[in-house]
Amino acid sequence: MNEAQRIYHALFRRDVPPVVAAYQRALASGADLTALELAARYTRKLPLLTRKLGLMAYLAETLPENQALFINEHSSFAAGLVHIAAAVLHTVWQMAKGLWLLRQVRHA
Length: 108
What we know:
Largest sheet: none
Number of helices: 6
Radius of gyration: 17 Å
Order of helices and strands: HHHHHH
Mean pLDDT: 86
Helix content: over 70%
Number of strands: 0
Structural class: mainly alpha
Low-confidence stretches: none
Shape: elongated
Distance between the termini: 16 Å
């Protein structure tokens, strides 16, 4: 019995549900969690991972040292277009990688 199963059983006196087991496998795999979360959100798999990463982002946004990551202090139309294009390419790459990782986690 692994750690997730033991903790879940200690709390609820029943076997760990598949969604929690899959979440634990995803964390244990050392996979790229942002790619995995993007694919999980798109496919509606691993809702626990999606909720936890979203909550972490909300909390991180409130810290002063993270403000530069969430607020653009300089505006430039050309730079904005470059950032959008880079973000689109990065998202496509993350989605492909995440779908592959999600498949690996589900079949592990």
